[in-house]
Amino acid sequence: MLRYAYFPGCVAQGACRELYLSTAALTQALGIELVELKKAACCGSGTYKEDSQLLEDTVNARNIALAESLNLPLLTHCSTCQGVIGHVDERLKEAKEEDPVYFEKVNDFLKKESCSPYQGSTEVTHLLWAIVADFGLEALAQKVTRKLSGLNCAAFYGCYLLRGQKFLPYDNVFQPESMENVFRTVGANPIYYSGRTQCCGWPLSSYSTPESFKMAGKHIQEALEAGADCLVTPCPLCHLNLDSRQPEVAKVVGKDLGLPVLHLPQLVALAVGVSPKELGLDRHVVSTKPVLEKLGL
Q: What pLDDT, on a 0 to 100 scale, did the predictor assign at position 249?
């Protein structure tokens, strides 16, 4: 059985609760055990380092140390969390060899808070990589009980999943195929469009909202024009900009949109027989009914 120290992040426990629910349902269906890190702190989503790199490294060294204490890899379903925590892990592993003074400085802060020291003894991964690289697509295919035949799925990778870390052993940063391969495995049709690896606009939304919405609108329109029935994203922050704010996005771009946006575990869990209700598919701002109707659900 695959076991992970589970870092759900903030958004999945609040604004995107359906991501938390669907991750639990999917991993249970696949026989993957998640040990939730109840004492973990927010990764900072890249904002801590604007004030202090040391702050970002210390907070996330503590998060990783919690996983290390369980002797498990840290898994998250948020690509922003994965990018931030994964990059901290890379940086501190490098510092352990090349800058031991800084490495010990981080651990000194952890000791002052009676936390376990960061050792650099585990890995940080995303649910997508766990499915593709650890569980395996062949094993996933054997779990499929409800083929998503005829469903046209457009991946929205976003920024952090592909570019948050220096090294990405699971896919090509510029021409990724991991999500499309998952789509094929569960019987869906992958849809390609130019915006699938670009930023959703969320980081701009707090200070340049119109520009943020224009970016999101451009991606949604491109996916619609390419024939997508839905977008599928591995990031809850992308989901917020593409789904929760889609009605506002539509007003800014001056076009009707109405494209459902699914979280990655929702899509995969549908294929392995989990009910739409269990996956929180009724919680989305843009209705997922067209997707379910196309699947006869």
A: 96
| CA contacts within 13 A on the Cβ side of 81 | 27
- pLDDT grade for 293, boundaries at 50, 70 and 90: very high
Which domains can be identified in the chain, with CATH numbers? 3-125 (1.20.1050.140), 145-295 (3.40.50.11810)
What's phi and psi for 230, nearest 5 deg?
-165, 155
If DSSP codes are grouped into helix, strand and coil, which group holds residue 71? coil
Share of the chain above pLDDT 90, in %: 88
Q: What is the pLDDT of residue 165?
A: 79
pLDDT in tens, 158-169: 988 888 778 778
39 vs 62, 63, 64, 150, 161, CA distance in Å?
A: 10, 8, 11, 42, 24
Phi and psi at 201, nearest 5°, equal 105, -10
Q: Can you tell me the distance from the alpha carbon of 223 to that of 219, in angstroms, rounded to the nearest whole number?
A: 6
Element (H, E) at 282: none
Other C-beta atoms closer than 10 Å to the C-beta of 112 total 8
Which pTM does this prediction carry? 0.95
Q: Yes or no: say if 118 and 88 are a contact pair by the CB < 8 Å rule.
A: no
Report the distance separating Cα 136 and Cα 27, nearest Å. Answer: 13
pLDDT at 206 exceeding the cut of 90: no
- Token pair listed for 256: 């009707």
Q: Is the dihedral of CA 157, 163, 165, 170 positive or negative?
A: positive
pLDDT score recorded for residue 159: 87
The set of residues, in sequence order, having a beta carbon less than 8 Å from that of 120 and lying 6+ positions away, is 89, 92, 93, 96
Q: How many CA atoms lie within 13 A of 118 on its CB side?
A: 31
